[in-house]
Amino acid sequence: MRLSDFVEGGVSTGTMQPVSQGLHAFIPNPLPPNWEMPNEFWPLLRDAWATIRELNGIGHVLPDPSILLKPIEDREAIQSSRIEGTFATARELLLFEIQPHSSSSSSESPEKNTWREVWNYRQALMHGVKSDLPLSKRLIRELHSVLLTDVRGEDTSPGEFRKLQVGIRGDRANPQFVPPPPLSVDACLNDLERYIQSPGDNIDPLIQCFLVHYQFESIHPFRDGNGRVGRLLLAIMIMQKCDLTHPWLFVSQYFEAHKDQYFDLLYNVSRVGDWSGWVKFFLEATVWQAKDTLERCKRLLKAKDDLKGRLATVKGSNKLIPIVDLALEKMLINVNDAATKFGITYPTALKQLESLVKIGVLRALTDFAPKTFYAPDLFSITYRDLGGFDD
């Protein structure tokens, strides 16, 4: 860790403490920071809130918002994991969901384990959203435990705060950043928990979420998985603090596209107290991501209506329309699922699915058993850029 960066810059957001092997650790000061938002940020903040409210509003007009939430959450799980170097395609994640298999770091290759890692991310998100716990150290530990179940990193004490000193970026002998010593982690998290659960001291709740994200990442409380837990916590906190009905806003897609900038800004908050650069980045990420997600949701709803319109000339279309809803809800449909969902026999379900293939509404996966179908028009909107399908 380059101590000169902090000494010459004048540490304003924390203190330096010598640790082993000549390294110095950074201990962040408790939130809130001694910072005022520049006046020129107000239009950007208004834009951020406007796009969030519009995105949240789309859920109010749907009888079942989950038909849009699932693809959004799948995208977040894939993209958040990619930031940490874990790559799985949309196809791999969705096939794992309908036919999961036991996977552990000791018995599976890293390539196969990535499917479970991404799936775990989505499970951790659902756990946090549905939990009755407040945003707290306990919830953070639970998110971490779900995230690292039966995957690489399970040997790094899932659900437990670290008891070892770690470094971030760079090599082990000279990391760019050294977070607090293990003995300081709990105290730092206690301060963070109090701040999260406080009214906010007149700080805009969206900006409060951005401040907490920095603080969590700078504390770096776990040996592994801190980035993913931090992004999970950010999404859950935005939902709660900004009064969203569901976790509509995720920013990992923007983070992945601006990964180097994200890490540089994170470092600069610690190094020279550049809160303005950090907050502006997050406001821009919020506006961009909310607009992208909103447009994707609108396109999905239009595609769904177009597919149903295509059925109008098909005999017995009233029996086929629910399958389009199921295709949007699950994205992949096998014959058994359709038979169970609609209370029909396997041959009847197969016949209905194949009739939708004939008119181009569905397409069969030719290399997967049991026989499974998907709607290419819906997939193109939701998953095409995430790989695994040709459409």
Outline the structure in words.
It is a single chain. By secondary structure, the protein is mainly α. The protein has two domains: 3-295, Fic-like fold (Orthogonal Bundle), CATH 1.10.3290; 314-384, Orthogonal Bundle (Arc Repressor Mutant, subunit A). 58% of the residues lie in helices and 6% in strands. The chain contains 16 helices and seven strands. The protein has helices at 3-9, 42-58, 66-83, 90-98, 110-130, 137-147, 182-196, 205-219, 226-241, 252-257, 259-272, 275-310, 317-330, 335-342, 346-358, 376-382; strands at residues 14-18, 24-28, 168-170, 175-177, 333-334, 363-364, 372-374. A hairpin with a 7-residue loop joins strand 6 (363-364) and strand 7.
